[in-house]
Every structure is written in C-alpha cells, then in structure tokens.
Amino acid sequence: MAKKQKIRKKEETRLYQLIDRQKQKYFRRKNLLEQSIDPGEDARIQLKVEEAKYRFLLREARLLKKHTKS
Fold it and tell me: Which Pfam families does the record match to this protein (predicted)?
C-alpha cells in the first residue's frame, strides 16, 4: 500500500511541475504576442496550442485531486 502511495505522490509532483512549466510557456508566448505589432497566424495558432495544453494539464490535476479524495 505504501508503494502505491509513493508512486502516486511522485506522479502528482511530476504533474504539478509540468503544469508550472506549461503555464510559464503559455504566458511567455501570450506576452510576446501582445507585444508584437503584427503577429502572424502561426504565432496565434501556437498560442492556442499552448493554452490547450495548459488547460488539459489543469483538468488532469483536478481529476487527480477528485479521485484521491474519494
């Protein structure tokens, strides 16, 4: 039982680190796009991709938290 909890805690930590990195990437790209005079279509698409990844990771964290409480 302790091994399972140890693995869960390790994966939870890894998920939170991924969320933090993705958040930084998303906000960095968003700030760059806001400061650009004429951002290209590729830049806007990349921003949407970064946002989708960030939202996905947040959703996964919420599900993980919900399942660990039950």
Answer: DUF2508
